[in-house]
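Running co-folding for iron/sulfur cluster.
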Amino acid sequence: MTDTTNGSLNGKGLALIPRAEGKQTLKDFKSDQEVRWCPGCGDYAILAAVQSFLPELGLKRENIVFVSGIGCSSRFPYYLNTYGFHSIHGRAPAIATGLAASRPDLSVWVITGDGDALSIGGNHLIHALRRNVNLNILLFNNRIYGLTKGQYSPTSEVGKITKSTPMGSLDKPFNPISLALGAEAGFVARTIDSDRKHLQSVLRQAAAHRGTSLVEIYQNCNIFNDGAFDTLKDPATRDEITIRLEHGQPIVFGTGDNEQAVRLSPYGGVEVVRRSEASDDQILVHDAHNPDPSPAFALSRLDEPAFQHVPIGVFRSIDRPSYDHLLNEQVRAATADKGAGSLADLLHGGDTWQIN
Amino acid sequence: MTKQVQQLDRVIIRFAGDSGDGMQLTGDRFTAETAQFGNDLSTLPNFPAEIRAPAGTLPGVSSFQLHFADHDILTPGDAPNVLVAMNPAALKANLADLPRRADIIANIDEFTKRNLVKVGYAGNPIEDDSLAEWRLHAVPLTSLTVRALEGFDISKKDAERAKNMFALGLLSWLYSRPTEGTIAFLEAKFARKPEIAKANIAAFQAGWNYGETTESFSTSYEIKPATLRPGTYRNISGNQALAYGLIAASVQARLPLFLGSYPITPASDILHELSRHKHFGIRTFQAEDEIAGVAAALGAAFGGSLGVTTTSGPGVALKAETVGLAVTTELPLIVVDVQRAGPSTGMPTKTEQTDLLMAMFGRNGESPVPVFAPATPSDCFTMAVEAARIAVKYRTPVMLLSDGYLANGSEPWRIPEIDELPDISVRFTTAPNGDDGTMYLPYLRDPATLARPWAVPGTPGLEHRIGGIEKADGSGNISYDPNNHDRMVRLRQAKIDGIDVPPLEVDDPDGDARVLVLGWGSTYGPIAAAVRRVRKDGGKVAQAHLRHLNPLPANTCEVLRSYDKVLLPEINLGQLAMLLRARFLVDVITYNQVRGLPFKAAELAAVIQDVIDSD
Ligand SMILES: Cc1ncc(C[n+]2csc(CCOP(=O)(O)OP(=O)(O)O)c2C)c(N)n1
Ligand code: SF4
Ligand SMILES: [Mg+2]
């Protein structure tokens, strides 16, 4: 019989990956390559956060692989002293799928941008999410095409003025969290480049998750889309906008008179109300483990319209069997059933005859 | 009535019927009986792309041709000696291929007014004298079958369905085939429905007995076993041989096989076959599209698997960018293109050799890849192992060009001994290769092969990054240096140019031919059969066949220049001809057809004779 559960691997995304012997430091994960992003780019902060986070995982460095597509963000692997594969535009999830499915002893990370993941690579992304190979996908969302010098992207707001849309962009953007939830993702989170503590706590949970995890990271492109997330960073506005999701906690945010809460809306979905208007038992308690993705989806819609309220944190984290585990289990079961393959037996199978 | 038994040296039979009539199965069974008997054989299935075209119509006709002989043969045959036509559509669709005096066994039960009208027959060809040129055997196959199965507890529909087994029984009698194999096959196939199994066996036997007793057939035939090279044989199709070759390559390379693939005719059967052999440590991955298929295979190759992707022309078009990535990251990868008629969707179930130039050049930048092509169905095994040997030795993607004709055609295959297979095992790099003893230089090449080292994730101390951006010679770091790029482009080309491929062999029995016929890939059988005919008539002609198209064998130019004329038949508009003219300034004479079908030996023989006679 094929074991079709994750078994003891639930919540242990790293269980099969060999652990480092000594203590590691940030330095172990820095490569000798000169970092070439524009000064002030949000990618620097994410790189620093990842470099200082990786030692915490305690994995053998040689068993970590970063796979990326194409874009400014996709240069990321060059700056980490792990194995790395800087591939082609949009295809990193597919390349990483082959690698992770054939090598369960590796911790595989995908670095991708909003254009890379959601435009040219949209198909691979949604299939990676539903398939649930043990991967961590970090989607650097700067809501612009950085590397090609500033065209609008599939996450740019409608009306975006760019070189390719001088009269404003026309098409509705994707909400990456809604998309991922719709694509059957088991782990979906959002964080932001400027909040290292939050970023690292999300990465920690993503790494621990067995299966595909998608982490959207808001990343400032100070050259082509500067300030896209300023309202989430400015002390004057951020607390009224940012909703920090914590599993098991009532969803409240803002301070003082501006304290607000999220409750189920009588029209379906969820709504933001003044804290004072909601009784305690009306306030939605965040359940990232809810098998039903609908509440998480409803939360993902709160940023409509125009970034009024933006939840960050882990929207969804559920256990379901990972593809690589199931695939390797089929290989194991077939071998247990038929014995390790014999080439001579294979070639002589079927009807044969002898000529002397 | 005593019947005569006549000896024949070879026969070509075509079973034709509606897609739902089970003609492929009937053909397969007759093939298995013939293989068991020890004849040499070659088969050609021909089926519509539609799964079930409307019953009884011309587009719905499915056929299976089998050529078998008491000597070694090279093709499924040009024209059938016997046509089994299960309905008027099958007769109409195939009659043009039938030479005079050939036998037609027609199921007259299906020649109803309605069915005749459906395919545009004004009268009934069985009853008027329009088939006078042929030897017609009008047999009520359906009603005879139904009557033979009267005692069985099965529906009328199931009884009618068994008519293909009745036909098989009749043909088995006619050509003195052994029957045990088919009986055992039916028992196994319908193990869960014993009544259906018994009924099919009864229909099969009734067909045999009908042959023995009816006056419609006065003669039965014998075709003695062929004398082939000693060994153990099995019948094998190109797709199955290719799948087995990939498994053998994985075993011989000691690398787990990873197949990333997306279903497409006529390549899907390789995916199906490999999916059945997980106990070889094979991982098969049905991807969301062809790009993901090749990308996953490349990712697995980065991790130390034998990465393979299988597809047909439209899929190769989608994979181009990823193959380019494999070229520049210099990772082993096997890309199987089972070519079909194009452009675009073209004719999915029909064969063509039209992807050669795409395989050679269909990528951006200077992006050389080895291109190999098997010559026969069983050669798909050998060439799959060869593709893997080159991929792992030189760390390069390899294009393997099969086609619809090879994929679905079959022939007896002498099963190789395992120790006849090449050892293609690789050694991963496990230690630093830099001068200082600590550095790992992922692009430091082996001076003999120019291959770069292959260090897989999990190897301590060799952490490195590769990618699609140009790399500095040696270190592999990103480099935009003009001279470095020029050097790397030339190095990648030199690596492919230097691949060790065997010399081109020439078959020129008397050594005095002045015309050479050159071919590549699946045209081997028809060309060789045509060459035989020409020689039998006293013509002098040499033959050479390319299985390695990039790089070409080192002696190719020399061979071409040593003949006055080189004739190059291709199932395209002259793709190899263009390459040879460009490379060697040899003005080959082209002969091209793109009808979705293999060449006929007789046609080619006439073309060869013309070339010999001209000037
Ligand atoms: C097949 C292909 N098409 C187009 C490009 C050009 N291109 C490179 S990066 C990019 C968009 C990058 O945007 P994003 O993924 O958001 O990454 P960012 O640079 O913003 O980090 C495009 C269109 C390419 N490299 N390959
Ligand atoms: S263009 Fe934007 S995203 Fe790219 S490196 Fe510069 S700041 Fe960063
Ligand atoms: Mg971007």
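Result summary
Residues 251-285 of chain A form one domain.
Chain A has a mean pLDDT of 95.
Job closed.
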